[in-house]
Amino acid sequence: MYLCIMLKQGLQQKQIQRLSPLQIQTIKLLELPTLELEQKIKKEIEENPVLEETIGDSDSEEGPKNVSLNEYGTDDPTPTYKTYVNNQSKDLKPQYSTFSVKESFNQSLEKQLGYSSLDGRSKQIALFMIGMLDDNGYLRRDLDSLADDISFRQNIETNEQELESILKVIQEFEPVGVGARNLRECLLLQIRAKRPCKEQQLAEKILEDYFVEFSKKHYAKIVAKLNITEEELKGAIEEIVRLNPRPGGQIDDSYVEQAQQVVPDFVLELKDGELVMSMPKFSVPELRVNKHYADMLASSSSGSKREDKEAASFVKQKLDSAKWFIEAIKQRQNTLQNTMNAIIDFQRDYFIDGDETKLKPMVLKNIAEKTGLDISTISRVVNCKYIQTHFGIYPLKYFFSEGLMTNEGEEVSTREIKNILSKSIDEENKRKPLTDEELVAVLDKQGYKVARRTVAKYREQLNIPIARLRKEL
User: Fold this and answer.
1) Which end of the chain has fewer beta carbons closer than 10 Å to its terminal beta carbon, N or C?
2) Residues in a beta bridge with 413
């Protein structure tokens, strides 16, 4: 018996679209905000010897002359990004340097450790434990596993009991609450350090014995179990809410990070009733081709030696790279400008006075259709970009939102719905907060037909807890 196997052969054509080096470069640059673009350009100058920064008189006889890329077939005499006003000096770079908040926090604790009465061995263990604290000042590792780490990394044999006693010393450091292993311990450390009074003692009792009930706001249970009045409970809760749940984070205030500073990618002004948009004013050096390398390409291309051809190949590669880079910057600027103009045109009524009720529902597809660009391109433009307006600085993502229909058939932005939700919750009776079902009724009275699950979704997006957790005495 023979088993015949038929093999069917056929040709299948597949069309695979490959991106050109220029397209790849443009895509990468589109995603960069202004500050990162500056850094990218500086890095490109450092890595590509063909590119030079024009300084002073480019016609000076000293040193190699700088020439435009178009003299060597690059078709780019003046980069478009150089046509924008540049009003920032090159001395602004140091302002972008940052400080590490975690290091500063650790240094503060290490300094206090130096004044403690611990011996050298214990201080070495304490130093390791300080290094294990997170940015909020908590020790998240259990002491048993921490003892193993210290034995392995520091070659110091220790145990859970010794670590507990050393941790007690660390927990006496400032800020109060540092070294806690959970929120309850953090709050207890702080409440015990406060001046003794009736409210303080009751607050400590609640944190010690009824922390679960407190965290879930089951106030009636606490009142019944402790046999106290609501007024007494209110005084104790006021003591607790004054405590700091993130003792390690309070040092942030003394370090104003320039990295946190938002540098707008667009500037929108209202002049004589007209909206005028301009691109950012950032310091970008003018790029030119070093004539020495350009001449090398011209002379080496006619040579027959292997070294000459290799040199010519290297220079041509760098020239092409320079051409693609500058053209990508030009395309980036054009794409950003066209996209921003489309957004302004779509939301013109809103940009006139910043009235949020005039913000229309808008998704990426709307702007893609207006510009003729892909949705993915619009997404890259919008990501991490900011615009400075006459009523504030906003991320571009802020202007995008879905839409809902009112009872009258009018389409409104979901942001308007969220604003009504937020306002309603702010004005609610905190002794009896509005449930999601009641919020649905509030919206319905104002002409917005929204399902309960949609209200719950918007409430969560606004970081607003459920009604029970918003309850106050």
Assistant:
1) N
2) 403
Residue 190 to residue 170: CA distance in whole angstroms: 14
d(CA 394, CA 386): 6
Cα distance between residue 22 and residue 426, in whole Å: 52
The residue count for the chain: 473
- Dihedral pair phi/psi, residue 112, rounded to 5°: -65, -35
- Which residues on adjacent β-strands are paired with residue 411? 405
Residues in Cβ contact with 418 at an 8 Å cutoff, skipping those fewer than 6 apart: 458, 461, 462
Distance CA 113, CA 103 (A): 15
Q: Any idea where the domains of the chain sit in the sequence?
A: 20-53+65-86+261-400, 100-174, 181-243, 403-470
DSSP 322-384: HHHHHHHHHHHHHHHHHHHHHHHHHTHHHHHH--GGG---B-HHHHHHHHT--HHHHHHHHTT
> In the numeric block, which tokens belong to residue 57?
């008189």
Q: Which residues of 401-435 are buried (b: 16+ CB within 10 A; e: fewer)?
A: bebbeeeeeeebbbbbbbebbeeebeebeeeebbe
Closest CA to 127 of 140, 146, 144: 146
Which residues share a beta bridge with 386? 395
Find out whether 126 and 133 touch, Cβ atoms under 8 Å.
no
- To the nearest 10 degrees (0 to 180), the angle between helices 414-426 and 436-445 is 120
Pick the CATH number of 403-470 from 2.60.40.10, 1.10.10.60, 3.30.420.40, 1.20.1070.10: 1.10.10.60
Per 3-state DSSP, what percentage of the chain is helix, strand, and coil (rounded to 5)? 55, 10, 35
Q: Mean pLDDT, 10 residues at a time, over the chain (473 residues)?
A: 48 57 81 83 83 56 40 41 39 38 72 90 94 91 91 90 95 93 95 92 95 90 94 93 84 41 83 87 59 66 65 78 82 91 94 85 90 90 89 88 64 78 90 90 86 87 85 79
Q: Left if phi > 0, otherwise alpha if psi is -120 to 50, otherwise beta: which for 31?
A: alpha
Residue 152 near residue 265, CB atoms below 8 Å: no
